[in-house]
Each structure stands twice: as structure tokens, then as C-alpha cells.
Amino acid sequence: MNLVLLSNTTSVASIDAISLLIENLSADILKQPAVYIASEPDPQRQYFEPIKQMYQALGFEQVEYMELEQGFDANSNRLLKQSGMVHLSGGDTYRFLYWLKQRGIDKTLRCLADEGKPIVGVSAGAMIMTPSIDSAVLCGDQNQVGLADTVGLNLVSFLVVPHVSFPLKNEAKLKMFQQQSQYELLLLSDADAVTVLGNKQRIFGSPQLLK
To answer: Which CATH class is domain 2-210?
Structure first.
């Protein structure tokens, strides 16, 4: 696996984590497109454009936008397989996973990750990379799309809670959730990030792991 999990893309830790991932890519991969998967339609590309500029500054020549809802392109699976890296954006976690499953992109992403395709997940995107997005309720997300299957991509062994503020204000709620879950709970502030390169994990900032 070659992964980055973070809360946002603007902190020093986030840029350092993404840079570390990209530094390990070959020149040939950097010539392939980085593919940004939008969690929901972004017609004005206001969320996409800053990410596009970031990846171009870090070495990718081409950054492609991919939508899952009305703007979905039937060639998206082929685009993903030909990509150098995949970026899962932030947003409504339930809505994002619902449409990934509706389009069958979740299965494609799992296969690509197993093959070593680099994947960056931000906030909702990071939660989707875990065994389950059940921790999304701790961020205030509501299942307004009626998603029945909350199983994520299962690329890591823990669940994620992004945008946590330290010291914790809702520590009791977090610990109660973790005690009722079979998974460890990784708490990420906006200044934290985690990379997984092969079987090695590197921490940026000061995330907490509730066991």
C-alpha cells in the first residue's frame, strides 16, 4: 500500500506527507495523470483547482477531475487504471461512499491500492480508506442518502476521525465509540497526517490512536 490519510491539504504536515509519497514515484508515473475524485459535484471546480495546482507544483504534469453523480464518465475506470495517483476529496462521507459503490469505483480503488497505486484521502476520503465509515458520525456527518453498507475500502486496520481539536473536548464520546468498535480509532487534527509506504507507517504532527 502507498497511502496518505489527512484532514486537509494546507497544513505543513499534509504537504510533507504528500511530498514524501510523491518523492517515491518514478518520473514515468509523474507523467501519468493524478486523478481527483470529487465527493460531490463541483461545477465551478472551486475545490478541485487548488488541489490541481498543488499536485502540479509537486511534480504531476496532468491532474484530472472525476465526478460520480450526474457528470460521471463511463470511461472513469479506465482513467483510474491509467493514473499515476488517486486523490479522494473531502466532503459528505456517506454521500461519497454511496456513489463510489453505485459506480463500482470502490472495487476498482481497492484493486489499485493492492497493486500499489498511491492514494491520498482527505477527511471523508481518509475515512473511506478505512474498514468502515461509521466514525463519520463523530464528525457530525449524517446518513442522508440511506447508505446501508458502510464498509470502506479497508486499506488500513483502523478507523479515522478527522478535524479533531486537541486537547479533546469530547474525549468520553470518542472513547465510548471506540470501546463499542472492533477497530482502533485514529484521531487526526488539521495539522496531522499519516503515510503508509509498503509496510512502513510514518506520522506527521501528533495524531492520537485510541486502542
So the answer is: alpha beta
